[in-house]
Amino acid sequence: MSSDDKQIIGLRERKKAKTMAAIQMHAMRLFREQGYKATTVEQIADAAEISPSTFFRYFSTKEDVVISDNYDPLLVRAFENQPAHLSPLQAIRGAMISEVADTPKEELAMARERNQLIMMVPELRAAMLNNLTQMMQLIAEMVAGRIGREPDDIGVRTFAGSIIGVNISVMIYCADHPEADFATVLDEALAKLENGLPL
């Protein structure tokens, strides 16, 4: 692939991410004003000045507009850039913390608001479980590639599941403690996991 092709793909990805963020911003405003259940896809599309069919090019359901983010490819890239001498847990910790640290404040604020909404709405919690299952598979594949094992190896899957467990605990904690800094809490939680979960 030429550098021109890579630039075109990069521009396309940035444009897509920008459109997704704009749709999510309008959706979150409507959810605040009207409530999640009372807000329709048509209203979100109208507020974002797009057609409902364009909405569905970016999000498959109304739940998806709250659950989805562009974090996965960034996490993969950050994980791949971690020094080779680090353990898988140190590498995933470094990747996750670096990506949160690099996220603009306004995006972190929206992520916090989305997280609080997810914890309050049962159908969003159910949709998040599916999302976290996909993230667990992604982590298993990343780690398996790093250590030369298969993603379905029980040790690799258990490792990936423990990372997801940490994410869930941090999400719940931060929803209950809005003043908490997500990156700090995540780093502390992953450090506890790295140290064998001392209590």
From TrEMBL:
<dbReference type="InterPro" id="IPR050109">
    <property type="entry name" value="HTH-type_TetR-like_transc_reg"/>
</dbReference>
<dbReference type="Pfam" id="PF00440">
    <property type="entry name" value="TetR_N"/>
</dbReference>
<dbReference type="Pfam" id="PF17754">
    <property type="entry name" value="TetR_C_14"/>
</dbReference>
<dbReference type="InterPro" id="IPR041347">
    <property type="entry name" value="MftR_C"/>
</dbReference>
<keyword id="KW-0238">DNA-binding</keyword>
<keyword id="KW-0805">Transcription regulation</keyword>
<feature type="domain" description="HTH tetR-type">
    <location>
        <begin position="17"/>
        <end position="77"/>
    </location>
</feature>
<feature type="DNA-binding region" description="H-T-H motif">
    <location>
        <begin position="40"/>
        <end position="59"/>
    </location>
</feature>
<protein>
    <submittedName>
        <fullName>TetR family transcriptional regulator</fullName>
    </submittedName>
</protein>
<dbReference type="InterPro" id="IPR001647">
    <property type="entry name" value="HTH_TetR"/>
</dbReference>
<keyword id="KW-0804">Transcription</keyword>
<dbReference type="InterPro" id="IPR009057">
    <property type="entry name" value="Homeodomain-like_sf"/>
</dbReference>
